[in-house]
């Protein structure tokens, strides 16, 4: 990765030098710009390689307790075609989902399902989540995680199919439906959705837009309102939305489009148990944005649970890291899920949870 960045930086530097000398051949500049584009495209190839390596790590890190699979599914088409003349623009998009099933399941029984969308605008379900998945598997949950449109590690086309706050939610819902339709051991009456950051946003969207499909949701440090978020972040964040292959318009040009991609827009729909966690020193999803979600739910008279942690260590990742403080907080999330999903092997203590995730 670092080598790739250095190459790209060198090319840009050379381009700047030649730009300062107009007497140089235009053809050479065109060649250098072409090379710059190729190097940019190579980033997706590096992402694919990194993802394939991490997939091997998934199997290594959970093979002792889980049956692990990666399946390919289809969801809705792009929300708008890249090329209006493309006669295949209405084709359903393909995406991958991870499936984790405890090795000790009884095929004659049914088990609760956790839908776990990953965080990040352009990111993927990496082994960053391995300890959390181990905690879930130890309790008897089946877990599914969709690599929804816009995820990295699957090439340029998947990357540019990004639909932040839009049809990425269709992909996550489809992963939930796939599990119920294809695994008789999944109990459709015990399905929860959990996520952090952008995954927390998707968890909110699932429970607010498809409340009949879930029994409960946990949203950790969730992206909640795009108007608030764009106002508090720099222009590089805005560029994710205004790029031609995504929305292609700014929030000033099309505020309605951004509103429909914000969980606050659907707060009035909440009718299932919800837990929200946020942290005052979060340096990514600022506490004010999550408080806006909390206040909007209150304004609509909704019953839900939340906690605002005061300067918890770890900032944005305060309850996903591996410290005792973080895992003790995560224990409370598991106890919330336990109330509504009734896992067969709930944790009796924080120490039991630590042993399940870390071995000691």
From TrEMBL:
Organism superkingdom: Bacteria
GO MF: serine-type endopeptidase activity
Keyword annotations of the record: Coiled coil, Hydrolase
InterPro entries (alphabetical): AB_hydrolase_fold (IPR029058), Peptidase_S9_cat (IPR001375)
Transmembrane spans: none
Coiled-coil ranges per UniProt: 25-52
The Peptidase S9 prolyl oligopeptidase catalytic domain, residue ranges: 132-341
Pfam families given in the database record: Peptidase_S9
Biological process terms in GO annotation: proteolysis
Cited Gene3D superfamilies: alpha/beta hydrolase (3.40.50.1820)
Designated name of the protein: Prolyl oligopeptidase family
């Amino acid at each position: 990765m670092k080598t790739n960045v250095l190459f790209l930086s060198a090319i840009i530097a050379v381009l700047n030098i030649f730009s300062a000398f107009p007497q140089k051949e235009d053809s050479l500049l065109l060649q250098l710009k072409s090379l710059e584009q190729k190097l940019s495209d190579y980033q997706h190839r590096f992402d694919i390689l990194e993802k394939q390596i991490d997939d091997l790590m998934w199997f290594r890190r959970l093979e002792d307790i889980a049956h692990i699979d990666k399946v390919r599914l289809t969801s809705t088409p792009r929300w708008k075609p890249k090329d209006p003349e493309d006669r295949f623009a209405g084709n359903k998009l393909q995406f991958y989902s991870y499936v984790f099933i405890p090795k000790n399941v009884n095929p004659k029984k049914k088990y609760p399902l956790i839908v776990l969308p990953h965080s990040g605008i352009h990111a993927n379900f990496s082994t960053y989540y391995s300890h959390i998945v181990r905690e879930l598997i130890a309790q008897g949950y089946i877990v599914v995680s969709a690599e929804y449109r816009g995820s990295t590690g699957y090439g340029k086309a998947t990357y540019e199919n990004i639909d932040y706050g839009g049809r990425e939610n269709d992909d996550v819902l489809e992963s939930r439906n796939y599990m119920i339709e294809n695994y008789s051991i999944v109990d459709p009456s015990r399905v929860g959705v959990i996520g952090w950051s952008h995954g927390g946003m998707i968890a909110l969207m699932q429970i607010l837009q498809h409340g009949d499909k879930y029994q409960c949701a946990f949203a950790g440090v969730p992206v909640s309102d795009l108007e608030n978020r764009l106002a508090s972040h720099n222009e590089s964040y805005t560029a994710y939305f205004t790029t031609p292959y995504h929305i292609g318009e700014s929030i000033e040009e099309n505020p309605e489009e951004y509103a429909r991609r914000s969980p606050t827009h659907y707060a009035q729909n909440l009718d299932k148990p919800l837990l929200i966690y946020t942290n005052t020193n979060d340096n990514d999803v600022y506490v004010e944005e999550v408080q806006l979600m909390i206040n909007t739910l209150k304004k609509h008279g909704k019953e839900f649970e939340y906690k605002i942690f005061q300067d918890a260590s770890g900032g944005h990742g305060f309850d996903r890291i591996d410290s005792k403080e973080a895992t003790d907080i995560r224990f409370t999330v598991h106890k919330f899920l336990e109330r509504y999903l009734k896992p067969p092997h709930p944790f009796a203590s924080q120490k039991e949870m630590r042993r399940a995730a870390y071995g000691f």
